[in-house]
Amino acid sequence: MLPDFDAQPGRTAPADLLLSPTQRETDEAELHAGLNRVAGIVANARGVIDVLRDVAEFAVLAIPGVDGAGVSLVDTRQGIRSVATWAATEQLVHDIDAVQYDELKEGPCITCMQSRRPTVSGSLGCDDRWPHFGGRVARMRVHSALALPLIVGDQVIGSINAYAKSRDAFGDHAVRLGSQFANTAAVAVHNAQLLANAHERALRLQRALDSRSVIDQAVGIVRSRSGGSAEEAFERLAHISQTENIKLHVVAGQLVEEAVRRARARRP
Question: Residue 45 above 60 pLDDT?
Fold first, then answer.
């Protein structure tokens, strides 16, 4: 079933009827190969940047007519206005998206994320939807675009940006295959983000636990020297931290290291 998408106004898409049964079978096989590879990304629990690079490369394989593709992500704290390309198969894709996101703030990828539907252009230089972007990209000898939103649940997390040098490169067939690929890719990217966030939280927790352990050791050393309570020892460390503008766990670490050096120096 063909997904709902935004075609270029006033331009007729290429007829998919011209595709031979052999070409359709080949395209379907390449799509499923791309989907299987994306599924493997999730199973291997790879990092976000690696996942994005793979998704861009697999998109070129899975979507017919693509000369170069990229994957852009949205900063969920700031919304679509903060979108940026994180991976691309060609430097030209980075250059096109830099014009789109950083300079002109208009283009098919921004549109697809706003509409939450695939967006197609067969002649960017004549596309009235992006009067500044289209002309710039056409002068870069890129004439077709297929932008696919990456959606998980009700949240747009980014887009796949596919470009071709020829005109009318993406018909209904390409949109259908691209949409299937984008649905699976969105899950892979989202899972990679979740894993990365969980890993970062675990690292922060471990650092906090390590810092607490060092602070407890320093409190014990101060108590052994002063004979005071744990609260008094902690307040002394906190006072040093505030006075010298050094983080508490750093002050504690320095005290512990000093105690270790002195202990070693006293060894016969």
Answer: no
For 69, the 3-state DSSP assignment is: strand
Give per-residue pLDDT as tens, 137-185: 999 999 999 999 999 998 999 999 999 999 999 988 899 999 999 998 9
148-176 burial, b at 16+ Cβ within 10 Å, e below that, comes to bbbbbeeebbbbbbbbbeebbbbbbbbbb
Total-model pTM: 0.67
Domain identity same for 25 and 153: yes
Which residues are within 8 A (CB) of 223 and not within 5 positions of it... i.e. 6 or more apart?
229, 230, 232, 233
Assign 129 to helix, strand or coil. Answer: coil
Q: How far apart are CA 58 and CA 29, in angstroms?
A: 13
Run of H or E residues at 155 = strand 155-164
| Region 239-254 average pLDDT | 84
Query: Based on the domain organization, do 107 and 133 belong to the same domain?
Result: yes
**Would residue 75 count as lying in a domain?**
yes
